[in-house]
Write a structure and sequence with these properties.
This protein is mainly beta. The protein has two domains: 81-299, Sandwich (Jelly Rolls), CATH 2.60.120; 324-724, Class I glutamine amidotransferase (GATase) domain (Rossmann fold, 3-Layer(aba) Sandwich), CATH 3.40.50. 11% of the residues lie in helices and 31% in strands. It is built from nine helices and 44 strands. The strands form nine sheets. Strands 30-28-31-33-44-43-41-38-39 form a nine-stranded mixed beta sheet. Helix 4 (464-470) crosses helix 5 (492-503). It is globular.
Length: 725
């Protein structure tokens, strides 16, 4: 457990985010209490803590696991490193250890580049801090007269393990020797059992590794050689007793040894691969085309993959449990945590013709994003509303989101589900919204579930992760699919599934904004993790380094789906055009919307202004906005039925649409600051309704679900369901 951080008194996570009726879900819990905690099942209908809103509506459901369980405190251990067993290394010949390194952060605390560990203690380690480089041999520390430069590649050599140890460091690419030392304490590798990369084993119980290195390592090896040359330029690499080529198997967690003993190692906590090494020339931008130039691994003290908690109990999902959003509720004393899970119907038990697609890939991308607004005002509202108190800003020990940067300034490329998802909780608000509830993601998306329940519309639930695994078969039997507020992140599999659904005659309502925007990848070797490479424009908190826009997981080009030839306009008629603060305005109907052919959609809607109310910024159109764009694939048949207006001055056009910031283009850019509520006819009498605003669903519950936004969506759903019968 991280002693310098606050611990959540009671929290947990599950081994899967969704399950079908008849399947099982493992629940893993950490409790700081001495007494037993209680667990039960609830069905979640609403997750809005605003006292003026629809409220948090959770209703108990009987379950097999309901009962009390022993409290056990469980920790989290961020920090990536590599571990390589050395049993079998031939130490009968003189050896030189060689490794290349590139520091990305230098600080007062030591960072261990590598350590050689014996049966019971560390034998050799090499550290970096503000004083420079130092080597520790059998407890004796020797400093080298060099403070490495951040971003510069170096090669380190250690020779003479059977006697006085010679150490030398070379600056690359020139290969000049910049530091050297001789350690006169005799030593031997005879007791060495393990090579630890980018960290050291801790002598303290419960914390296996410490002193993580923030930077890149490349191709460590043991050479059958005892030479320490003046320069590397004319030096032969020599014969290898062990050589770990990081350019091999870049998509996985194993580091391969091409030496005679096959001493393969393993990477822990998902360090970044597919990154530039010391030999990168710029001739190729994809690691798959020139792997030898990407033979580096970037380690970070904040990397995180798996809490590794043991299972406390198993939720056996009943065969007859209706599809819906449920919660594993944990309670002890005054503390409570609710872990949402999505229950799908049995394959043979589907009854609903409509499904809600929850944006679980987007939840995962934002997982534990701390934002910047956690302070006195936030806490005051939290207390007044009795909302969820577990803000990620208070509990950073469960890893970063894809919106964060590491301590060395590099972007966080990976996010895992194997940890508590603190943002994916009912009753958690994101913003101090003076005109509404300030909800994002899961709590905001539950406005749609509350609306369906209020209108008596039967609906199943499905997730992005289901589409990634099952493809379009996960949704093929539904007539209508409703997205939630922010389906921003998609894999190739999930995007293909949606395209096939619409192409096959399914109707869809895209009820959000900034959808189908970023491409992410998954990996069989790292189940429950996703990877992103933010490159080539887009609204982003960090940018991938030059030459690093291809995923390590699948070797495919990352970044925007737009830059992958799959703009969202091709799928749903509209795509991201502008963004601003957490504020909203209304839509104004177009003249086209008055045409008799759209009378069915506006039945009971007489107003010209739509959605000038709501629980997200006070209205229906805002925050992130989408528009039609024929140049990006909006179908000629698409019809804009309403357009938002009156957005404040803090809104701006997205960078991918700004070709020239010259004053003469500003009027065009201002025109992009709008949401186009659009209807796109399909090729099989199916329809796609796209709202172009993240805030749209926040207007559904207003006035007891009796308003023109609610009526519009109801008309669409009823028409599509009727057409499918």
């Amino acid at each position: 457990m991280q002693s310098n951080m606050q611990n959540i008194p009671l929290t947990g996570y599950t081994d899967r985010i969704s399950a079908r009726a008849g399947e099982s879900i493992e629940v893993k819990v950490s409790s700081q209490f001495s007494e037993m905690y209680h667990a039960d099942l609830v069905r979640i209908y609403s997750a809005d803590p605003n006292p003026s809103g629809p409220g948090v509506d959770m209703r108990p459901v009987s379950s097999n696991f309901e009962g009390s369980y022993p409290s056990t405190s469980k920790g989290s251990m961020p920090g990536s490193y590599g571990t390589i067993p050395l049993v079998g290394l031939d130490i009968s010949v003189p050896l030189t250890f060689v490794v290349r390194f590139q520091p990305r952060l230098i600080k007062d605390q030591p960072q261990c580049l590598f350590s050689l560990v014996g049966d019971s203690k560390e034998i050799v380690s090499f550290d970096l801090d503000t004083r420079g480089l130092s080597l520790t041999w059998a407890g004796a520390r020797t400093e080298l007269d060099l403070v490495p430069q951040v971003g510069t590649w170096y090669e380190l050599r250690l020779a003479g393990f059977g006697g006085p140890l010679q150490v030398a460091c070379y600056a690359l690419p020139a290969g000049a020797r910049v530091a050297a030392a001789t350690i006169k304490v005799a030593g031997s590798l005879s007791g060495v059992r393990e090579l630890v990369l980018a960290a050291r084993r801790s002598p303290a119980e419960g914390s296996p590794t410490i002193d993580f290195f923030n930077g890149r390592l490349e191709n460590p090896s043991f050479l059958v050689d005892e030479r320490i040359p003046e320069t590397l330029g004319h030096d032969s690499p020599g014969k290898s007793a062990a050589f770990w080529d990081f350019s091999v198997a870049i998509s996985g967690k194993q580091v391969k040894d091409s030496g005679p003993s096959g001493l393969h190692g393993e990477l822990i906590n998902l360090p970044a691969r597919g990154v530039r090494g010391s030999r990168w020339s710029g001739r190729e931008m994809s690691w798959a085309h020139a792997p030898e130039e990407y033979s580096a691994i970037h380690f970070h003290e904040g990397d995180f993959y798996d809490c590794g908690w043991e299972t406390d109990f198993i939720f056996e999902v009943p065969h007859d449990l209706p599809s819906g959003v449920y919660g594993i509720r944990l309670r002890c004393g005054h503390e409570q945590d609710v872990i949402p899970v999505f229950v799908r119907p049995k394959l043979s038990g589907r009854t609903a013709k409509l499904a809600v697609l929850f944006s679980t890939l987007t939840y995962q991308a934002y997982c534990n994003y701390p934002r910047t607004n956690y302070g006195d005002a936030y806490r005051a509202r939290q207390e007044a509303w009795g909302s969820n108190p577990h803000h990620p800003a208070r509990y950073p020990q469960f890893g970063h989101s894809l919106y964060d940067v590491h301590a060395d300034g590099s972007g966080v490329m990976f996010s895992s589900l194997r940890r508590p998802q603190l943002l994916m909780r009912p009753g958690l608000f994101a913003y101090l919204d003076q005109a509404g509830s300030g909800l994002r993601h899961f709590p905001a998306d539950m406005h749609l579930i509350a609306w369906l329940n209020a209108k008596g519309i039967a609906a199943d639930v499905v997730t992005d992760h289901d589409l990634e695994v099952e493809g379009s078969s996960a949704i093929k039997d539904y007539a209508v699919l409703l997205t939630v507020t922010h389906p921003e992140y998609h894999t190739l599999g999930s995007l293909n599934a949606l395209e096939e659904f619409i192409g096959g005659g399914g109707s869809m309502a895209y009820l959000g904004g900034n959808g189908f925007y970023w491409r992410v990848a998954t990996s069989a070797e790292y189940p429950d993790a996703i990877e992103i490479r933010r490159g080539e424009s887009g609204v982003r908190m960090w940018e991938a380094e030059t030459g690093e826009c291809y995923h390590a997981f699948d070797g495919q080009y990352g970044g925007l789906w737009l830059k992958n030839g799959r703009p969202p306009q091709r799928l749903v008629g509209i795509g991201m055009s502008a963004h601003g603060g957490f504020s909203s305005t209304h839509y104004r109907r177009t003249e086209t919307s008055r045409s008799p052919e759209f009378a069915w959609l506006f039945d009971g809607v007489d107003e010209e202004i739509l959605g000038d109310f709501g629980y997200s910024g006070g209205a229906a159109a805002g925050f992130e906005l989408d528009t039609v764009d024929a140049s990006l694939g909006t179908a000629e048949s698409a019809v804009v039925l309403a357009v938002s207006e009156g957005h404040p001055d803090d809104y701006s056009c997205v960078p991918e649409k700004i070709w020239n910031p010259d004053v003469h283009t500003n009027e065009w850019q201002r025109q992009q600051i709008r949401a186009d509520l659009t209807l796109v006819p399909g090729n099989m009498d199916n329809l796609v309704l796209s709202t172009g605003s993240i805030m749209f669903c926040g207007s559904l519950p207003y006035n007891g679900f009796n308003n023109n936004i609610s009526r519009l969506l109801h008309n669409f759903v009823v028409r599509c369901l009727a057409e499918a019968t």
